[in-house]
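Slide 14.
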Amino acid sequence: MNRILLASASIFALAGAASAEVTFGGDATLGYNDEVEGGFYYGADLVVTMTQELDNGLSVSATGDINFADDDGDTTRGSDQLNTSYVLTLSSDMATLSFGDVDPVGDAIWSGVSGSAVAGFNDGDVHFDTANFDAILRGDVMYSGINAYVSFGVDTDGDAPEEFSAMQLAATGSFGMFGFIAAYQEEFAGTPEIIAVAATASVIGADIKVAYEDDGTESSYGIGASYPVGPVTLGGYFTANDIADDSYGVSADYASGPIAVAVAYDNDAGQEDVSLDASYDVGNGITALAGVAADLTGETTAYYVAGEVDLGGGASFLLSFADDEGAVANDEIGGPEYNQGLTAALSFSF
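Slide 15: predicted structure.
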């Protein structure tokens, strides 16, 4: 394993002979929320990317992300959290090799039909936090309309169950109006082996997807479709689960001029929900938003009203109020995923 890591490091070191292109970016937020944040809060991201084109058609890049935020667990002035992450990449026109804080490919690529009770693919949090991997090694290859992907969790300090494991595979492709998605996850550290495949088609304006998923305990078969009718896009899905109850839902999205409205009904294995989200572009960079959602099974409701102002130059201002009777985390309320309570926030992108 050490030889693999040293070889990877040697590859990324090849670009040192010539000067690299360096770019900076980031964002910052200063806000107030009276419930979730307990008052004023702030955060900022600084992203630095160094890129070098090599003589043989390859390019290398290194990206560092520094996240700076207030520490909710300490009210002492100057108590802050500093989190960092990195990604090293070697790429060509047909392939990419990435190492660091990247998404495992099954979780990143797979897209099935709503309502499946099959366990989801392990994401970056599971790989890093639960399994104690220090990085993800990911490879992408593109050829003749077919994309293939593979990823592994990599442990460099001996904390993970295995130093090179948690393999995920994925593939996508398109052939005219047809396409496919496939993904696989190996069993490791108590997480299940997962197999998932889907086929897509675009027929007379309708987008159709059929999917099959299996985690060794549960399996599901689903079909979903959407069809545009003027400014309205109609959608629906049905998923049959072998153990859990079946799931189904319908939706309608309207968008015309300054108005956008989305209505949905879902019955997820007996859990019934309805939602309505609407927005209106007032003009001069101002957008008004409102929405309501009802948990018909638990007989609880959630709603929000908000105004968003585009100040130009990557700056924006948000003023919102949201309330969720059944909230647990008190966040992600409605389609825009607002925090519970009153929020006022000024954000900048650089």
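Speaker note: The two ends are 39 Å apart (CA to CA).
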